[in-house]
Design a protein that fits this description.
The protein is α/β, with parallel strands linked by helices. Helices cover 27% and strands 25% of the residues. Strands 5-4-3-6-7-8-9 form a seven-stranded mixed β-sheet.
Length: 227
Amino acid sequence: MPTSREYARQRNRMVDEQLVKRGINDRRVLDAMRVVPRHQFVLEEFKLHAYEDRPLPIGEGQTISQPYIVAFMTERLRLKPHQTVLEIGTGSGYQTAILCHLTHYVFSVERVGRLADQAGERISDFGYNNLDIHVGDGSQGLPDQASFDRIMVTAAVPRLPNVLCTQLEKHGGQMILPIGDEHLQELKLITRRGERFTSRTLLRCRFVPLIGRYGFDSDINSQPTTL
């Protein structure tokens, strides 16, 4: 098993070769990706593959996204240290930890209680205490905690959920999410200005489906996240 120093070398190589060379240039995002140890968020049998350019299974039919898509989504939200973020789909907690590193406070919603508990323990071990994880239907957001400066949805929805749009901060709030069917989606950036919402398509992608009232039915087949 690699040492912590070797994992750090792999992490720096991941940033330099998978992120910087593919156009990720936000220094704060790159620093966060160098700091947060991705190998601590994957199953034991996949630790040797933690810094490869691909998603990995984390159990419960879910995946940890490939490093590039984590960095891409994070960079496109243009996060600031004072902001509050809502994350839909805690999963392994890796993306959550990146958000905690970059922002004032993170609310995260995970449907699977076991994943939520494991993610919370991992993130706490790294010293982040600016986090509140909820177990529930992420497709409905957290209306009692709104509004949010930024919302990140890490699973696919069939259409733009209005319930999440209304939880965005009215003056420049932004949300990033994959919209489409269970096989292929488009990653979109939504910006709110008052009661007006604009949408920008960023790229085509493939995420596991978001199960819930405004997502997909629970009997849908999950597929791994890829770019």
